[in-house]
Amino acid sequence: MIEIAPLSPPDQSGWEVLARGYKDFYQTFVPDSGYQDTWQRLMQNRELHGFGAYLDGKLVGIAHILFHTTVWVGEYCYLQDLFVDERARGQGAARALIDHVAAIARKRGAARLYWTTKQDNKTARALYDNLASFNGFIRYDYPLV
């Protein structure tokens, strides 16, 4: 059975393995110091919030969220990162993390929960298509550095 809970200090090494797996999947380089900085921000639990999916007590999935204001309707919840260890996929961890985040967003009164993924991420999109609506938007990134 999958259990969801906020990330806590004993999760750091397991979290880093999953966070690196996530960044590798998206071919995004983060220096070692970036993982340490992100972990510290998650542990402060102010602007960023981190949750773990645990299978038999072992951390097998992570979700990172943040809330932000919007121009028209108050606040949105952005599920920035979602990753499940390849060996634990298909057992409900990603769905449980999304459902948990949705409950938090509802409780906080957020107007929307949203996330992005790569167009060719077929495995994740099969789940997402069952849980949410694809609204047709495509994201562009404008380089600032």
Order of helices and strands: EHHEEEHEH
Q: Count the strands?
A: 5
The CATH topology annotation reads as Aminopeptidase
- Supply the CATH architecture: 3-Layer(aba) Sandwich
Q: Helical content, roughly?
A: 25-40%
Distance between the termini: 44 Å
Strand order of the largest sheet: 1-2-3-4-5
How would a crystallographer describe the biggest sheet? Answer: 5 strands, mixed
Write the layout of secondary structure elements.
Elements: E1 2-6, H1 12-25, H2 32-44, E2 48-55, E3 58-69, E4 75-84, H3 93-108, E5 112-114, H4 122-131
Parallel strand pairs: 4-5
Antiparallel strand pairs: 1-2, 2-3, 3-4
Descriptive overview:
- The chain has 145 residues and is an alpha+beta fold.
- It has a single domain (2-131), classed as Aminopeptidase.
- The chain is built from 4 helices and 5 strands.
- A 5-stranded mixed beta sheet has the order 1-2-3-4-5, with helices on both faces.
- The model has no long low-confidence stretch (mean pLDDT 96).
